[in-house]
Amino acid sequence: MQIKPLALALLIAVPATAAEPDTKRHQAQIDQIVKEISPVRIEATIRKLVGFRTRHTMSDTVSETEGIGAARRWIKAELERCGAGTALKVEFDSHIAPVSARISRPTEIVNVVATLPGTQAASVERMYVVSGHYDSRNTDVMDASGDAPGANDDASGTAAVMEMACVMARYKFDATLVFMTVAAEEQGLLGAAHWAEQARQKNLNIAGMFTNDIIGSSRDEHGKKDDTQVRLFAEGLPVQKENSDAVRTLIQTGGENDSLSRQLARAVKEAGERYVPKFKVNVIQRRDRYLRGGDHMPFLERGYAALRFTEPAEDFNHQHQNIRTENGVLIGDLPQYNDYNYIARVARVNAAALSSLALAPAAPQKVQVRTAKLQNDTELVWQANSEPDLAGYRIVWRDTTAADWQGSKFVGNVTEFTMPQSKDNVYFGVQAIDKDGNVSPASYPTPLR
Ligand SMILES: [Zn+2]
């Protein structure tokens, strides 16, 4: 076709948007991390943790072989050993819990925290936290001396977090990663709550938190095996007596499925399923299971995005139970009921998601939609990101009844864009993308009048 001179002039006059980086390709570093996560090491860690006999929060702290004190010293030494020669910094985070519903005498609660600092100045303050709880319990939550192996609840999550720390410490990420094994989950989420409260008081920028709690078994109570998925619990709107302005805005604009935790869950599902083939991240749109809670809750209650990973179908014969035989069935949270390849798969999903988030730019800030006049186009504006490797922004959208993003448009390195669809009919989000194709979670636009 021959282009007429006028048309050619028009073509030249329109500034070209830089091409979208390939956001579907695999980052070599993440593929390598996923490959290195070892079910053999995870099994060895779990069997070692079970070997402390009980890890009840009020159990012995003096013995070198039994009780929670020996367990936490071993976890810390292991993280120091495998992090040697890397930037991984391992510390105890300790406080004394006063007497409360599940604490009968003032008790030292100790988290083991391993931090891998980010390597990009613009991102080092942004943190992602992954945790599991190393304390255990049996039938009576106050029984501090009976055997409480806690192989699934939650040596599985503890071992996954330790494995991630050991593998990922040998790689570099833009943002900071915190690998945490916490105590006193069973006594009222006390370890996680202490750390989350310190974070809130210091106003730390925790862009996302995941707890891994009961990720050990792929078998349900009837013996049926499903090792093809993990549940990811993601809260919508927080339960509070008084709604914050941010929550009121979400409710007013129909954004109840676009909270920070739901946006994080979408990003985790995308990265997890991209890097771990034939494995589903089953996002459950609620805070947690009925009657249950976990270490993501103290983070949610302080306004942070937080999620919970749990196996697809729990067998309650193998949690929170004294070891015993009933009607020929061996009851108790014992290591033979874990599926170590399954735990490794869940750890890989976590590691892929954490890596992807910590390599990507921050989610765009101050994303707004202009609502001053009636119109069927959608004018979106946002604040510029500061990362030096930023390629630009992508606008994503979905039907109001859809769970996941259905469309996307890369718009280049600009801070506003007008979409030809109506903001009344779809939900929009804005993501930041770096030059390697790493994508941030989406940010929900608030009205700008
Ligand atoms: Zn648990």
UniProtKB/TrEMBL annotation:
One of its GO terms (molecular function) is metalloexopeptidase activity. Residues 1-18 form the signal peptide. Gene3D superfamilies: Immunoglobulins, Zn peptidases. The keyword Glycoprotein does not apply. Keywords: Hydrolase, Metalloprotease, Protease, Signal. Transmembrane segments: none annotated. One of its GO terms (biological process) is proteolysis. InterPro entries: FN3_dom, Ig-like_fold, M28_fam, Peptidase_M28. Pfam families: Peptidase_M28. Residues 363-449 form the Fibronectin type-III domain. The keyword Coiled coil does not apply. PANTHER family: METALLOPEPTIDASE M28 FAMILY MEMBER, PEPTIDASE M28 DOMAIN-CONTAINING PROTEIN. This is Peptidase family M28. It comes from Duganella sacchari.
